[in-house]
Amino acid sequence: MNTGETDEHTIFARRESNARSYCRSFPAMFVQALGATLTDGEGRRYIDFLAGCSSLNYGHNDPDMKRALGEHLASDGVAMGLDLHTPAKEAFLESFERLILSPRGMDHRVMFTGPTGANAVEAALKIARKATGRTNVIAFTNGFHGVTAGALAATANGYHRGGASVPLSHVTRMPYAGSAGSVDTADLLATMLANPSSGIDRPAAVLVETVQGEGGLNVASAEWLRRIAGIARDHGALLIIDDIQAGCGRTGSFFSFDGMGIDADLVTMAKSLSGFGLPMAVVLVKPAYDVFGPAEHNGTFRGNNHAFVTAGVALEKFWANGAFKERIAERAEQLRGRLSAIAAQVPGASVKGRGMMLGVDLGSGDVAADICATCFEKGLVIETSGAFDEVVKVLAPLTIDAETCGRGLDILEAAVIEHAGANRQAAE
Amino acid sequence: MNTGETDEHTIFARRESNARSYCRSFPAMFVQALGATLTDGEGRRYIDFLAGCSSLNYGHNDPDMKRALGEHLASDGVAMGLDLHTPAKEAFLESFERLILSPRGMDHRVMFTGPTGANAVEAALKIARKATGRTNVIAFTNGFHGVTAGALAATANGYHRGGASVPLSHVTRMPYAGSAGSVDTADLLATMLANPSSGIDRPAAVLVETVQGEGGLNVASAEWLRRIAGIARDHGALLIIDDIQAGCGRTGSFFSFDGMGIDADLVTMAKSLSGFGLPMAVVLVKPAYDVFGPAEHNGTFRGNNHAFVTAGVALEKFWANGAFKERIAERAEQLRGRLSAIAAQVPGASVKGRGMMLGVDLGSGDVAADICATCFEKGLVIETSGAFDEVVKVLAPLTIDAETCGRGLDILEAAVIEHAGANRQAAE
Amino acid sequence: MNTGETDEHTIFARRESNARSYCRSFPAMFVQALGATLTDGEGRRYIDFLAGCSSLNYGHNDPDMKRALGEHLASDGVAMGLDLHTPAKEAFLESFERLILSPRGMDHRVMFTGPTGANAVEAALKIARKATGRTNVIAFTNGFHGVTAGALAATANGYHRGGASVPLSHVTRMPYAGSAGSVDTADLLATMLANPSSGIDRPAAVLVETVQGEGGLNVASAEWLRRIAGIARDHGALLIIDDIQAGCGRTGSFFSFDGMGIDADLVTMAKSLSGFGLPMAVVLVKPAYDVFGPAEHNGTFRGNNHAFVTAGVALEKFWANGAFKERIAERAEQLRGRLSAIAAQVPGASVKGRGMMLGVDLGSGDVAADICATCFEKGLVIETSGAFDEVVKVLAPLTIDAETCGRGLDILEAAVIEHAGANRQAAE
Amino acid sequence: MNTGETDEHTIFARRESNARSYCRSFPAMFVQALGATLTDGEGRRYIDFLAGCSSLNYGHNDPDMKRALGEHLASDGVAMGLDLHTPAKEAFLESFERLILSPRGMDHRVMFTGPTGANAVEAALKIARKATGRTNVIAFTNGFHGVTAGALAATANGYHRGGASVPLSHVTRMPYAGSAGSVDTADLLATMLANPSSGIDRPAAVLVETVQGEGGLNVASAEWLRRIAGIARDHGALLIIDDIQAGCGRTGSFFSFDGMGIDADLVTMAKSLSGFGLPMAVVLVKPAYDVFGPAEHNGTFRGNNHAFVTAGVALEKFWANGAFKERIAERAEQLRGRLSAIAAQVPGASVKGRGMMLGVDLGSGDVAADICATCFEKGLVIETSGAFDEVVKVLAPLTIDAETCGRGLDILEAAVIEHAGANRQAAE
After folding, report:
1. For residue A10, what is the DSSP state?
2. Which pTM does this prediction carry?
3. By the 8 A CB rule, do C400 and C331 touch?
4. How many CB atoms lie within 10 A of CB C325?
5. In this prediction, does ipTM exceed 0.85?
6. Nearest 10 degrees: CA dihedral of C30, C33, C38, C39?
7. Fewer CB within 10 Å, N side or C side of chain B?
8. pLDDT digits (tens, 9 = 90+) for C182-211
9. For residue B167, which residues of chain D lie inside 8 Å, CB to CB?
């Protein structure tokens, strides 16, 4: 059996909820996955430019993580550990401190939340509100932070918001960098917060992504982010960087805000944190704001030790020195060059994003969907993002080799030209 | 190193958030886990009457699940699959249909949510609201449904609610079965909903646990549950059974409501669903209410294939016939007998719960805490529950053998007598 | 022109909003009003058992108030005074202190709110929340407190709540005295608040009517009210008595809770406070809870000096000694006697209410509506109340003479017998 | 007795709530009021540039209204009429239709709400939400719409919002015309609403003042208002003009938006609507949106017939022809000329407002307060507005004669020069 969606007799059609989505666009049965490659039940191979929505930054089934997890399993290591102390958790924390936090001078504590990004966002919002005694949170247009009620209030996408079927509260929306034409959106935020009659209640936090993954690969400049950070500080609000999709190397460095001079009070992480695609999420929190009492925010699966095992390997393998960062930079350059060339062939198209979080804005969700469908037929898994699903988004594993990456881009280029190329447009 | 909490030099004290909790009561470093036994770094063994808060119903590192997961890993099976079709997911769904749903005549669809119980509850509430066009949800005193904003609104515990630091909305609270003295709480609900001027807005759903795990092992009778189900139906509200803690055999059968004649519209499951303690959660939803559009409720880790692998094994191994159910019944009988005898030695104490979800109500959180601390010293991991943490809760793996179970109970009995025995009380 | 509703050519049909209501039941053009009598454009007289929903307790156009208002007007006294000091306000406050507050040992301050009952309720809720730092308010089934968003959250009636078209927040609903069969509703409240896992957030206030005017003339006993007051105090919640409809003598004494041993922290008053039916509302607030800053709750018309003039006269004329109270008691006895006799002729009917806030519960909104319609035809203006509009409510001016009252009751009796009498029922 | 605030022995200090405000700035006992003049208990006269915050546009105790009200009173006309038909209501409606609505081609219906502006705003918001099935409302920075919970959510002032002590919901805040530097705020609104991922839920209504009275006399241009109206229409949102302070001639014509080509779906009116300062409020609503059922939004005092009497006289006396409009224009010219001259003497000061809703922005709340205090000493009642109370606001009766107006301006000019004049600044 190859396709799920088309065959009404499958168990998926019969028993899986209508909420399923990716399997509709990519109706194969995926039996194997390695690095940047997926293989279906008929042996067909696909290059993976989706990478679990950036939760597989190190590719599928990294051999070192696989080995470590196999050993953990074989030795009857704790799998499910609530928040008990285990060697796997200890090792992760030590690596995280040594390789990530200490070199950056970050004294943040690590809060293990329920193992979803949304849960980390929920925890971060609660922390900010408890720490400040305020309820309002500033979030931005096109931001995506999850779909549980607290996180969803901060998520901007109307389709997802509608799913709540209740009004969403305690969030004030401001335009993201560059989202409102020539308006200086940082200035606007500053102006609004400086006015005691602006009608915007004093914020507990400003919640921001440095690159909006779901929102269309919108990039905030370091300067804009520093200004936002300064405005937050001036008004007694905590700065929460949601680095769930942009973190773990996706934009070129471990944190997407590395080197920007930004001092985040809280950082949410998930997706590629475990390295292996296993569920894991944390909130990094400055000691001064580590205000939860024991289990005040809890969750059964906050001690997913399998994920801790692979997460520890990921840190040691990829972040012990600067080699991986250089490798990402090379691949990012390759991607940006090729994508720019592709975009140049489409009237009005442009490249968006940063690092290996890049895409081509086609200006049309229909066109972008057609491109992705054609890519899939040709062996490339790739998806769209953006308010109108108008951006074809390349989220290849950061570990992809140049050749595979190039082949994926070849497929993409052909599909773009087929559906949106200048010649085609002229012909119509 | 053995203890985390007492040693300030550990990475846990230095870098883990204050929100950590179990590790404070059980400050060991747990290096290995098998069946009902945990082993710490010094080789000390503990009987596990906590079992990951009922997420390890089949014990730690079940060998069959372990083998299957190891094979999946070795073959580079998909680990992280978003909601793509995979053999592991297919196998789980087929087993779930064949062994669980079909025999019960349940035509429910399976919605894979983010892999936490809270996420499943959030999804279920959203579904009920979307399906009915109403916003209000009836939830009960002492109920626990998670701590993300939507689920937390339904959770009753004041400590957890306070963590939100915002008012929680769209939930009406009603007293649970037996929670208000002699009041017939089902009658009360019926009376309130029948009155158009009761001030209770028409509910989208009634959300209920059959046994309240966190709330103190309060048991609702089958009759009460049927009446609640009938009231929900009469008023056009969906019935959501939260079977996250009570399900997967904990109360004696797969669903905690098996054989009660209850037709739940939505069922939330998590904890022991994966069998191995890996993060996994689903909502079972009747086709008529399967109203989400594609990805309207989404989440990166909703395709945790490792969990699907072990979940499939768990179903085939334990639920293909009635043997496991019989075994649970035996152990439940052992437990109830011993716990009754223990309670009989404490003035005012009583046994609460159902199946292997049992405990002793000591009437005092301090006494219960002392008992658990003494147990831990003697090699038994056990925790409290209840509004005042006054119930010592036995959540042994369902697979525990009679002898190990008996040894755990011996430890418990000694601790109870030490801290709460009749003689002790008389002496004071 | 006599009727508005039936003639589509009237300005009312053409230009007044569909929200108009009483004029649909009583489609006359009322040109004159004196005491307990209304006169329409064709000279027809009606006995008024509606009395502006208890805002005309002293009857229409009381001659002494009229004289005082005429003099104020003639002398160019301030009409609209914001919250500036004026002799009319001074005189009202002095009378209110001397005749009402001081004799009862009440040290409450008077907050002049916007001149509607709803505005007073909104202010009282805000005060309680600010004073306690809590958000939740306990309100009761069948309670009515107004239809602006804050007050409406406390109002129980589903029709009115639906008008908000948004979920209403920050209120927990509990069953009112006697509203839940044999349940001891005070006990239930105590039980719920004593349980830290009840899911009911600690309340800022308990808001209660002593007799529910709109809710169907449900009467809370003094003992029940004292218990509610005690529970509120035990849990740090303020007690707000909403005396808007039941106050100003309606139940037999100035406050409806006089002599009950109840120490209300906040009392809301409106309706008959001005004596003349002019818009005026206040919150009485204990000094300890007088926490608003200047104009923190404001409103243009909070200084309606015409109302202050007549309110002052009303206090001096009716409350300087016990004569009026005696007179109300006599009339209440007349009413209760006759209504009991009327109810006795209808199977299942009963008298409800207290003082001159009385009615007959017919058990059917349709029957009650028919009775009121027939009364109107015969020259009696009378309305229904209750969750099902099943109670015919007598709210005659407290000043009505025995003879007029008797004639009104004659009309009512005939209508009741016509539509609901035992003979009629037997015949069907 | 002259002053209230300074004398602690007064009844006001003893019994009136701390929420009182104007009486703190103007601590006189006002015994008489006529036209633009107030007289205190010692015979001292004050020119009234406050005019009941624009609720006395026709001055105090207009003789024609006084006469009509006196006659109504003498004839025992209905004072309090719920929403029953009365000649006073009929006459008002007929005048309103003939003189106001019909000449403008407005087919709006008149909804009589509780007699406060806040109540009218609450009703308008409910109507918009019911009519559209949406919950969100767009409101603007510096807007003021009242302090009851629903209206307060739309009010921008932080001090008033804080009084709620609960988070305020269901309103999205956007910057008002000119409030965000060079940002084209209409463009910004359009951009935000056009983006389905803006995070701004589709609005039921856009609620706007044409001139922000409390917010600092900020003026929206006709073009901006037309654009806002167009944006609302494009997105299926109703346009609500809050004309409570700016209406009834204050800006030069009956509605503040007359002649602007704006087609408001709902208009809220109160303040000067009764003409005499008596409590009265209405919502004008297009027939298509007249969606309330009978009494779905109700209120005891929605039939204040004394107000209807004076309101009817006001319409016939001032709006039967263009004379009054011309007179306002003359006085507005006088005011603007003098205020411009005054502002010219203060570095950085400027004139704000439109028609006879004018003021001088001093750039400092302290300076503005000093000016008002000095004015009061010299016999002029005048107040501030703005986010920082930095604007001295002239709200003289529209009927004020040139000479009295000039004297008031003389006092103001002297006070401004004393506290903020260029010489003074230079000297410091």
Report:
1. S
2. 0.97
3. yes
4. 17
5. yes
6. -60
7. C
8. 999 999 999 999 999 999 999 999 999 999
9. 166-167
